[in-house]
Amino acid sequence: MRIHGGRLRVEKDFSVNVNPLGPPRELLEILGAKCFSMNIITRYPDYEYKDLKNAISSFYNVDPEKMVVLNGSSEGLSLLVLALKPTRIYSLEPTFGDHRIICKALGIECIALKYIEGEDEFIFSEDLLETACKDRSSMIIMSNPNNPTGAYIDVKKLASIASRCEATMVIDEAYAELCEECPIEPIDMPDNTVILRSLTKWLSIPGLRIGFMVLSKQLSRIIDSLRQPWNVNSIAECVVTDLLRNHEEAMRRFIKDSREYISIERKYLSQGLERLGFKVYRSHTNYILTKTAIDIDILLEALLKHGITVRDCRSFEGLDKGYIRISIKKRKDNEQLLDSIHEVLGNITAS
After folding, report:
1. Neighbour count for residue 281 (Cβ, 10 Å)
2. Domains of the chain: residue spans and CATH
């Protein structure tokens, strides 16, 4: 069974990792003025998505012939497995778990390669990929920044590894725009490497579902022929095309402002959680992985009574009971979370 954040409808959902600043003003204006109209919703999108691809290409400095637009970055993995038919999938764990569902459904061997859990962060070692990289018929997948740990691997280091690797490397950079160290524009990678990007995270529009992948021209043509027709809906196509084409500088400022805001609030929330007795792992993006000795089921149930939910991480490979992922929100919301946890812990202690 798939397990995601956002499963429960609550007042304060800290289980969903989107930009705490919310959708930019320009996006909402475009949506209301141009894209939510009969002219848009009663026609099919352009099957080739020429305008959308050109807008993304210009903003991210990516060759449009090396890009495929997606219904969110999560669509990319299924398409790649269909196109490449790997005999094995190696995954750098813990990470988002849809690959395990695909492996089970298609009879593909799935092999976990685990981060080293350090004192305050999860650590990547190149040695993890030594065997996988020798396996030409395999696929190696990873999220960078990692979901749920927030760990980050320098992309130039990954490019160097990929240049010596015979397997196909798939790097999900869904949170790159919300990570201070990450380049906004995907860097040039060897042809055996695929980059997945999401626009839903930094634009805070998970309901619209849009992303893209960057890959070799040859593989791009294959994937483009395999994707579902009109995989990106006309509203998402309209909004993102206009936004990136006509508000490029404003969106770059928005990413910069978002990164600065997240950095401040991540520090505030991390310190607050540590004062409450939580172990907090170093994160480079808009969520924090924590660990608590408190009974997680009791904690989650009590927080739910406060209208708050966080992400129980037991569904992630290698993370057992006690790990929680908490998204960064605005200061008022973060204060409410800390106050609620403090009250819950007091009640647990009293009982």
Report:
1. 21
2. 12-17+250-350 (3.90.1150.10), 43-247 (3.40.640.10)
